[in-house]
């Protein structure tokens, strides 16, 4: 591998040998991992965590120490949710079948799922993961539009298959971006004021469209995570994407909203993140929290592109839409609707934001706070400090929280934004515990850490 491709740290908050003195139990297990697993596997945190059990908001290590999970958006209704687990076990005891057989629960769930979307979005194809969902959505968009070009944000992440890795600049320089991809800067990371955000985004998208057309590539899709989580969690101003959306549609392209992270009530005000912007996409991709940990995803979309793809291209996926996955997903949707999860997310999100704002008034290391519901991006480090200092401080805070048995991570191009996304069932006590732990971590040596760099 070329030396210049080795310079980027693809997971800055990872364990490196020598970072920590580990007990023999963990050191031996790491040695066994390294001897048998591929090099792409990495352990999170400078001192790896070792869990044997999960329940609700908590993860437990072999010694029984409980860690508050404020990071994991896959079990969004809590680790080992008993209702989802019961649905999984019940269906597994009956039959695990695929979509080529008549199965009423598959149709029941598809009807329930599409009912949560705007009326224009009324068809669904199931997948196993968010990566598969985005891969399939790109196939549909390219066939329906006749174009090849895909427009993404400058630090986007959309999955791990070859097709979606090629539209995911977040994966690092060693993963080549497709020549059919154009990256656009977001107003927030570019420092564009809110009043000019929509114009900035539209201009970026129009320039990408122009370049794709000049090169004879054409436009297949604008693909974006509707909370721009990998770019640092940029949610405002609402609707700033609308001009870019219309420009792509006028150019013959489709709009694909990646809801793998913001979907299923994460933003609180809406079931789906794209609703925050007042748009109706052509295709929506789902994954992660859809089965609360059981691998199931989907592409939900408008009838016309879905039918054009379905009658002209073959798509068969052995495990997608299997009856066990559908049972899990059905239980998740039932809980979200029955227990008024969206309202709860708004209440807890507001409490967490108020607590962070109070903390920021005493802690200058908290530079900015952005959120939609229970998905937060918290910028770390004084504005005039160098990027390397802000990044180090953010990573130091993440690992200080880990030592205090609270789990979060980082995001953004410089990895100086704390990514906080607790399970949607968090309560007042969990929010306050997180705020207390962050206050302790900041109360150590936050400004001294910046000064040292």
TrEMBL record:
InterPro entries, A to Z: Aminotrans_3 (IPR005814), Aminotrans_3_PPA_site (IPR049704), PyrdxlP-dep_Trfase (IPR015424), PyrdxlP-dep_Trfase_major (IPR015421), PyrdxlP-dep_Trfase_small (IPR015422)
Known cofactor(s): pyridoxal 5'-phosphate
Domain of life (superkingdom): Bacteria
CDD domains: OAT_like
SUPFAM superfamilies named among the record's database cross-references: PLP-dependent transferases
Keywords: Aminotransferase, Pyridoxal phosphate, Transferase
Xref: PROSITE patterns: AA_TRANSFER_CLASS_3 (PS00600)
GO molecular function annotations of the record: pyridoxal phosphate binding; transaminase activity
Family the entry assigns: Belongs to the class-III pyridoxal-phosphate-dependent aminotransferase family.
Protein name, as recorded: 4-aminobutyrate aminotransferase
Organism: Roseicitreum antarcticum
Lineage: Bacteria, Pseudomonadati, Pseudomonadota, Alphaproteobacteria, Rhodobacterales
């Amino acid at each position: 591998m070329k030396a210049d491709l080795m310079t980027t740290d693809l997971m800055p908050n990872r364990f490196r040998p020598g970072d920590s003195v580990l007990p023999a139990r963990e050191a031996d297990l790491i040695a066994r991992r390294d001897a048998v697993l591929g090099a792409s596997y990495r352990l999170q945190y400078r001192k790896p965590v070792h869990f044997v059990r999960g329940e609700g908001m908590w993860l437990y290590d072999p010694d029984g120490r409980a860690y508050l999970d404020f990071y994991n958006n896959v079990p969004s209704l809590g680790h080992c949710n008993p209702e989802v687990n019961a649905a999984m076990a019940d269906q597994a005891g009956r039959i695990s079948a695929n979509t080529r057989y008549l199965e009423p629960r598959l149709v029941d769930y598809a009807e329930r799922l599409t009912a949560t979307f705007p009326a224009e979005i009324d068809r669904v194809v199931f997948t196993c993961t968010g990566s598969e969902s985005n891969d399939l959505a790109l196939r549909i968009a390219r066939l329906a539009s006749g174009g090849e070009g895909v427009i993404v944000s400058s630090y986007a992440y959309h999955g791990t298959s070859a097709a979606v890795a090629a539209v995911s600049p977040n994966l690092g320089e060693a993963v080549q971006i497709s020549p059919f991809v154009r990256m656009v800067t977001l107003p927030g990371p570019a420092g564009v004021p809110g009043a000019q955000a929509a114009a900035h985004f539209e201009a970026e998208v129009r320039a990408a469209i122009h370049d794709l057309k000049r090169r004879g590539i054409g436009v297949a899709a604008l693909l974006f995570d509707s909370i721009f989580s990998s770019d640092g969690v940029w949610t405002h101003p609402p609707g700033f994407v609308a001009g870019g959306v219309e420009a792509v549609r006028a150019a013959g392209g489709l709009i694909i909203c990646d809801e793998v992270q913001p979907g299923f009530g994460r933003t609180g005000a809406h079931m789906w993140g794209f609703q925050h912007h007042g748009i109706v996409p052509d295709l929506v991709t789902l994954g992660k929290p859809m089965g609360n940990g059981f691998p199931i995803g989907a592409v939900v979309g408008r009838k016309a592109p879905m039918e054009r793809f379905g009658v002209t291209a073959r798509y068969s996926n052995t495990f997608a839409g299997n009856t066990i996955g559908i049972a899990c997903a059905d239980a998740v949707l039932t809980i979200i609707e029955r227990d008024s999860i969206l309202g709860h997310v708004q209440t807890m999100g507001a409490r967490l934001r108020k607590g962070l704002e109070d903390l920021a008034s005493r802690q200058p290391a908290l530079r900015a706070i952005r959120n939609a519901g229970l998905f937060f991006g918290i910028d770390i480090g004084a504005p005039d400090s160098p990027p390397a200092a802000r990044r180090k401080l953010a990573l130091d805070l993440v690992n200080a929280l880990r030592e205090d048995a609270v789990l979060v991570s980082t995001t953004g191009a410089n990895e100086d934004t704390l990514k906080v996304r607790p399970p949607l069932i968090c309560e007042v006590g969990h929010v306050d515990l997180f705020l207390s732990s962050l206050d302790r971590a900041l109360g150590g040596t936050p400004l001294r850490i910046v000064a040292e760099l």
